[in-house]
Amino acid sequence: MNQEILDSGFIPNEICEKLPSGFDDIEKLASELPKVLANEQIVQRVKQLESNKDISQLTLSELERAMLLYSYIAHAYMWGKKEVENIIPSQLSLTWFAISEKLDRPPILSYASYALNNWKMLDETKPFDLENIVIMQNFLGGVDEDWFIMIHVAIEYEAKEILSNLKSYFLEEKLDQSYLLNSLESIQKINSIMNRMPEKCDPFIYYNRVRPYIFGWKNNPATPDGVIYEGVEQFSGEPQLFRGETGAQSSIVPALDALLGITHSNDPLREYLDEMRLYMPKEHRDLLNGLDEWSEKDRRKLDIDEESIKSINDLIKEVHIFRNKHLEYARVYIYEQSLTNNSNSNIVGTGGTPFMKYLDKHLQETVPTND
Questions:
Q1: Distances from the Cα of 146 to the Cαs of 17, 25, 130, 164, 250, in angstroms?
Q2: Euclidean distance between CA atoms 363 and 366, whole angstroms
Q3: Nearest to 134, CA basis, from 111, 155, 118
Q4: Are the C-beta atoms of residues 37 and 139 closer than 8 Å to each other?
């Protein structure tokens, strides 16, 4: 596993803001997506796109940009029409699939596209701050959609502090309590950022204007048999079932679980968490698998003193607070909204899970252990 990722966090070192000229039609449609969706013109616009583009010369950051744009346009095509069809036309499917093969994750909107590769600095001369970042791509646009993603980006940015310090303490076996205290300060900042979600993201707007576009095809009543990717020979015309974008595709919490020794019982809920790794960038997936192996085999060998055990337990309590806030948001932003709105199902989350049950279980399992 590449431990160095923990020093910089899971946000890419380079984020592409515009694809080469051969993708001008894709860039143009993506930039106009809010207007196209408002005017219900997505079908006509997609039909005008050039299919099967050459991606052979794209760099990694350009591939991520292409994945982002094709994912947004394809989800807009799926969920931005009056009637849902279970087919993605070849103008999108062929290039989208080719990109997904290169990036080694499914052709569906994932967290890596929705958040990690979807921002830039507002003012490059100033330091990173929640109020100094801009979301590059939207479905409908507006402050609520932007803020929802901005919170995630700010959490990812801060997470490099806790991850790098825990790497020094556990993986490099420096066992100096200062690393744990730095980590505690960082996770408290993360929780402070998380607490700011309601400032500019309203539950009604989120439920009705943001959430509907990020659903996937798996465990979704609107696409019970999955979705056909027109012309993709590798799928043989068979409908595909992929999960939608969800925060469970972030690598932060699984990394913290492994480093801090938090375990989840082996049941369907655990299987879902493991499945989410298929939607992560490959190097993140490989890192998490490596951390899990380390946690199972080597973590117990460390000679950790009593003071450090107390600090580790304090860290686990902060992760518990994070999960508890997430559960609260799921209730306020989704479950309670579903009681008064008929649109988009309350049965499953955007990742296709019974989210309240899942989040509560993960919360109950986040408890201090006797290291």
A1: 17, 24, 11, 28, 18
A2: 5
A3: 118
A4: yes
Architecture of domain 5-365: Up-down Bundle (1.20)
Q: Is the pTM of this model over 0.85?
A: yes
Q: Where are the domains of the chain?
A: 5-365
> What distance in Å separates the CA atoms of residue 333 and residue 126, rounded to the nearest whole number?
33
The pLDDT assigned to 346 comes to: 41
The runs of H, that is alpha helices, within the chain are: 5-8, 24-31, 33-38, 42-47, 60-79, 90-103, 111, 143-166, 177-194, 197-200, 203-205, 252-260, 268-276, 282-297, 306-329, 336-338, 355-365
- Mean pLDDT, the chain cut into blocks of 10 residues (371 residues total): 96 97 98 98 98 97 98 98 96 98 98 98 97 98 98 98 98 97 98 98 96 94 96 98 94 97 82 92 98 96 96 97 90 86 55 60 71 47
Residue with tokens 């309601």: 198
Strands 228-229 and 87-88: parallel
Say if CB 75 and CB 214 are below 8 A apart: yes
